[in-house]
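Reading is simple: each integer encodes one residue's backbone shape. The lines below illustrate:
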Amino acid sequence: MQNLNAIAETTYLSVENSLQYRRIMRIFYVEYEKMHFQLYKEEVLNLLHQDDSSYSIEQLKVDLESLVRWKNLTPIQDPGRVYTIADYKNKQYRYTMSEYAVEIERMTIRLENLFIESGNLSTNFFIRWKRAWTKQRK
């Protein structure tokens, strides 16, 4: 009971723009499962455009900064894409999911599928079925 502090990594699940953050994190998770651990913002944008072509690179930059601030993503500066001083100042990043974020996405997928896995039959259904069956036999 010592570690009951707020978990910053879950913030994206309950903020105003949570749908967009969840879409971004799901993209990272799906790519993580394919062992594609690091993504450029352009790759994320292309994957987002498969569902919503109105999403801009500026919106994505703001959302990625928020996810970095909440410790869901870790930015890694890419020295391989730097050819000029201006490129260096522009700071091209690759992003990778934190271990917390991977587990949170696994949990959300499990929660989404929980209803499907736990499909219970009501006892009322059996009572109605028995009554209908006995009526037919009479």
